[in-house]
């Protein structure tokens, strides 16, 4: 998804929820400002669907919730809300909210040229304040590459780079799979 600053200029969280219900597109809400989320490429969509399906199937008999890009995340300790491509929460506190989750253990963002710096930078800085988040996976839509930011047992964030031939390991949900499973049948071309 591509974020673009939109009007109105400043809303309370309650005004944001009411306002967004009347909009045709989704908007992230950061520090009182709304940002329109425009569509991504066909590969972006197909990769996000494959992740959602793979994860949801894996967690089918669990108490965890798999969300797609329609499920907001409330950034812990703030009134900020984002729409990641895929998220998973296993936290009971998220079972009582209807418009968002707050405690995901896994977040997946499919990258595009216009969002990569934001997803790797300020968006990750917001996400990593969440004490429950264990895995933050950034997925290329133009190459067979993924970068996993994994929080270890002592709270340090490690970066694991995956490429063709590798097996992705998401410890947050006890799931491993070959990277090619997500990229099967896709024509990958660099963004211009």
Describe the structure.
This protein is of the alpha+beta class and about 190 residues long. Helix content is about 20%, strand content about 30%. It is built from five helices and 14 strands. The protein has helices at about 15-20, 40-60, 115-120, 120-125, 180-185, and strands at about 1-5, 25-30, 35-40, 65, 70-75, 80, 85-90, 100, 105-110, 135-140, 145-150, 155-165, 165-170, 175-180. The strands form four sheets. A six-stranded mixed β-sheet has the order 4-7-9-10-11-12. A three-stranded antiparallel β-sheet has the order 1-3-2, covered by helices on one side. The protein is globular and about 45 Å long. Mean pLDDT is about 90; it is low at about 1-5.
Separation of the first and last Cα atoms? 17 Å
- Percent helix, as a range, is 10-25%
- Which band does the percent of strand residues land in? 25-35%
Query: Shape, please?
Result: globular
| Main sheet properties | 6 strands, mixed
| Poorly predicted spans | 1-6
Q: How confident overall, as mean pLDDT?
A: 92
Spatial arrangement of strands, main beta sheet: 4-7-9-10-11-12
Count of helix runs: 5
Order of helices and strands: EHEEHEEEEEEHHEEEEEH
Overall number of strands: 14
Name the structural class. alpha+beta
């Amino acid at each position: 998804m591509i974020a673009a600053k939109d009007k109105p200029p400043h809303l309370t969280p309650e005004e944001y929820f009411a306002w967004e219900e009347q909009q045709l597109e989704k908007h992230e809400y950061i520090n009182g400002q709304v940002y329109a989320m425009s569509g991504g490429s066909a590969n972006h969509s197909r990769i996000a669907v494959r992740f959602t399906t793979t994860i949801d199937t894996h967690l089918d008999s669990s108490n965890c919730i798999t969300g797609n890009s329609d499920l907001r995340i409330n950034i812990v300790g703030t009134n900020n809300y984002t729409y990641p491509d895929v998220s998973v929460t296993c936290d009971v506190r998220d079972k009582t909210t209807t418009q968002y989750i707050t405690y995901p253990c896994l977040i997946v963002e499919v990258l595009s040229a216009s969002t990569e710096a934001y997803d790797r930078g300020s968006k990750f800085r917001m996400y990593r304040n969440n004490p429950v988040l264990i895995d933050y996976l950034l997925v290329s839509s133009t190459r067979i590459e993924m970068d996993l930011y994994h929080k270890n047992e002592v709270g340090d964030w490690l970066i694991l780079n995956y490429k063709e031939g590798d097996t992705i390991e998401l410890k947050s949900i006890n799931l491993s799979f070959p990277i090619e499973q997500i990229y099967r049948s896709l024509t990958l071309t660099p963004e211009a």
